[in-house]
Write a structure and sequence with these properties.
Elements lengths: L5 E7 L5 H9 L2 E8 L2 E9 H9 L8 E5 L2 E12 L6 E8 L5 E11 L11 E4 L3 E7 L7 E4 L8 E3 L10 E2 L7 E6 L1 H14 L1
Parallel strand pairs: 1-4, 2-6, 7-10
Antiparallel strand pairs: 1-3, 2-3, 4-5, 5-6, 7-9, 8-13, 9-12, 11-13
Amino acid sequence: MSHASYELKAVARERVGKGSSRELRRNGLIPAVIYGDKQAPIAISINTNEITKRIHAGGFMTTVATIELDGKKISVLPKDYQLDRVRDFTMHVDFLRVSANSQVSVQVPVHFVNEEKSAIKTGAVLNIVRHEVELHCPASDIPEAITVDLAGLKVGDAIHISAVKLPKGVTPVIADRDFTIATIVAPAAGVAEEEEGSAEA
């Protein structure tokens, strides 16, 4: 399941806008917004170092947090954040209100296991089509990752979402087709595909 929940202290913002945001950042704070659950959005500020540490710890977008604001505790899921392109500095964070019954859509990373028990051991290449899969799941039970078992796979095999065992209550957002997550290709084909991708880029 997702990483352990954590708590953030926040202060309500009375002023919004670029000037106010710049002032906050100079004082070691980041502007943020809490929205959703059919309630009015709340503009807040949170500690820069604390939120940056959480972002870089991993699992930020799939972990429910608790924001303490004016003595109240609000359960939230990070939905977006902006970084300064030059300084890798956190500029803004959006939080979605959630409850025990909330259903959310999140991008969950894909982990591959047992490469040594597949054709990859003899030189084949794992061609990853999706490093993440968007899933519908309970906010209280977000998977930290989904695992794809490569054991026994040969050159030419493809792994589709239907082959992945998802936790109870978790379904893919893309429901109209059995999409591909990865394929096992011969070494030459893998190199050719990479070269084609580089050329297109």
